[in-house]
Design goal:
The chain has 500 residues and is an alpha+beta fold. The protein has a single domain, classed as Orthogonal Bundle (Cytochrome p450), CATH 1.10.630. Helix content is 51%, strand content 9%. It is built from 21 helices and 12 strands. The protein has a 5-stranded mixed β-sheet. Strands 4-12-9 form a 3-stranded antiparallel β-sheet. A two-stranded antiparallel ribbon has the order 6-7. A hairpin with a 2-residue loop joins β10 and β11. The chain starts with 6 loop residues before the first helix and ends with a strand. Bound molecules: protoporphyrin IX containing FE. Protoporphyrin IX containing FE binds next to α5, α6, α14 and α21.
């Protein structure tokens, strides 16, 4: 390497800058805080352990320091709350917020402006409760039909074994039935709309592909940098927003017109856009650009909350099924009995009868493999029942492995797959409890979980009835990891028609 005296000032400046960051970011703990795990490398702290060895690293910390404890990652002290403490975080919903904690790492507000408004979350949750969950029975037939359409289109005839790649996690399959419920039957058949829904989350996360290195300085610096391309016109999401707007506008206009002409004879279609027409600026007579933008924002908030999550867990569940031949007969027999009873037309009553499938799904959700997730930010200093205090601004990560693999709830081998644990203990897949945090807990527990579980069960029922499904290795496939977060395997699944 060439060295000259001119390079000395550069070294000096780099040294001063590094020391300044070190000094500014040096953790300063208050009284009674959870113990901070000692670390060797300044600034970097535990980041590398957290990214590349989260499972073992957090398990060691938990064993030595109890629950909760704090680690130093990406320039911030982060508290890890496990089996004993996490439920307190979720119960104190006025003090801890997940929406706020994900704002910097997932800056959706830069694209969907409505997110910034204070009542957006309330409106969204109400739309799910009143517009989807309360009407779930009425959607059953449509969800079933759209899923069958997708299965025939995307998997189709497998008279010879066919490898189906799962890199997209069956997202268009899920997107088609979600689109039917959200934007109605007129436009959900359009493949451009299905594609916009299926790809929205993936394309948005492409904006976030840069690792949060700059969070070492401050999380907001990272957010500014990752959203910089949007400022210069690179917005991979815009095309999806435009697709939806183009298709949605004439449908909304026609509905307003029909209402006016038909009055009491107007038969409201069953979907979430009709819910919004009735509840967002109810007396609107014209679909202005502002109004259209607002409805599209809400629809994409629902898309981002529902499709990626549901399709990921459908994929996890299929791998769990395919890699465990010992479960095949039991689960298949249940589906055959139900199918005969309903003559291929599932009703909510028949979905309730899928008790083994529900229990299997719950187990798949419990063991999906993320070590830590669902960060919450503390709005004001908070003291847990054990006397430990976390300061305002602190991020608390939910230590899912500690909760989902606790021996008190799940016995001496909590990591083994217990397909009928839910059935034996009367814990349906959509029921939250203190040993099962896949849908969160408390006031903000996922309002879409009933819809998601229904959709996954209908999809699994149809797939198990129609195909033998196995993994290429004949065993369970290894899941992928992105830091402490688990992603479905990518080995592919082998489908073969069942003989009828
Ligand atoms: C398997 C699929 C799904 C999983 C694993 C999942 C998981 C979660 C989790 C962990 C939370 C945070 C809960 C908390 O803070 O306590 C959440 C919140 C939320 N989910 Fe889901 N979700 C799924 C499907 C859906 C669907 C289908 C929808 C919409 C139809 C949806 C809409 C929401 C909304 C709006 C929130 C925010 C609730 C609030 O903060 O009050 N989710 N979800």
């Amino acid at each position: 390497m060439h060295f000259s005296f001119e390079t000395i000032p550069t070294f000096v400046w780099v040294f001063i800058a590094t020391y300044a960051i070190y000094w500014i970011k040096k953790p300063r703990l208050g009284k009674n805080e959870p113990p901070l795990i000692p670390y060797k490398i300044p600034i970097i702290g535990h980041t590398l352990d957290y990214l590349f060895n989260a499972e073992n690293f957090l398990a060691e910390c938990r064993q030595k320091y109890g629950d909760p404890f704090s680690v130093y990652i990406f320039g911030q002290v982060t508290t890890i709350a496990g089996n004993e403490i996490a439920h307190e975080v979720y119960a104190a919903s006025d003090t801890f917020s997940m929406t706020n904690a994900t704002r910097d790492s997932f800056p959706l507000y830069r694209i969907l402006k409505s997110i910034e408004k204070p009542d957006t979350l309330k409106i969204t949750v109400k739309a799910i409760r009143d517009g989807i969950t309360a009407k779930l029975p009425a959607y059953t037939e449509r969800v079933q039909r759209t899923l069958m359409f997708s299965i025939n289109k995307e998997i189709g005839d497998c008279s010879k074994p066919k490898v189906i790649t799962t890199v997209n996690n069956f997202s268009s399959m899920v997107a088609r039935s979600v689109a039917d419920v959200l934007v109605g039957q007129e436009i959900s058949k359009d493949e451009d709309v299905v594609k916009a829904f299926a790809d929205f989350t993936k394309d948005f996360t492409a904006v976030l592909a840069i690792p949060p290195i700059l969070s070492f300085i401050h999380p907001k610096v990272h957010t500014k940098i990752i959203t910089l391309p949007l400022k210069f016109g690179w917005n991979p999401i815009l095309k999806h927003l435009n697709t939806l707007k183009k298709h949605l506008k004439p449908v909304l206009e026609k509905r307003l017109k029909d209402r006016e002409i038909l009055g009491d004879k107007y038969e409201p279609p069953l979907d979430v856009i009709e819910y919004f027409l009735n509840n967002l600026e109810k007396d609107t007579k014209v679909i202005t650009d502002d109004y259209l933008n607002k409805i599209c924002d809400f629809i994409f908030i629902l898309v981002i909350a529902s499709i990626h999550t549901t399709s990921h867990h459908t994929t996890f569940a299929l791998y769990d099924f395919a890699g465990r031949p010992e479960l095949w007969d039991d689960l298949y027999e249940e589906q055959v009995i139900i199918d005969k009873e309903c003559n291929g037309e599932l009703t909510p009553h028949h979905i309730n009868k899928m008790v083994k499938l529900d229990s299997f799904l719950r187990e798949s959700l419990r063991t999906f493999g993320s070590v830590a997730a669902n960060p919450h930010r503390c709005f004001e200093s908070y003291t847990f029942k054990n006397g430990m205090t976390v300061p305002k601004g602190r991020i608390i990560q939910t230590y899912l492995s500690d909760i989902h693999y606790n021996t008190t709830a799940y016995g001496p081998n909590p990591r083994s797959f217990l397909p009928f644990h839910g059935l034996e203990n009367n814990f349906p897949a959509s029921k939250t409890d203190r040993d099962y945090f896949v849908f969160g807990a408390g006031k903000h527990a996922c309002p879409g979980r009933f819809f998601a579980v229904n959709e996954i069960k209908i999809g699994l029922h149809k797939l198990i009835l129609n195909y033998h499904i196995r993994t290429p290795s004949g065993k369970t496939e290894k899941k992928l990891n992105y830091g402490p977060v688990a992603l479905p395997p990518v080995a592919g699944l082998i489908f073969e028609n069942r003989k009828k």
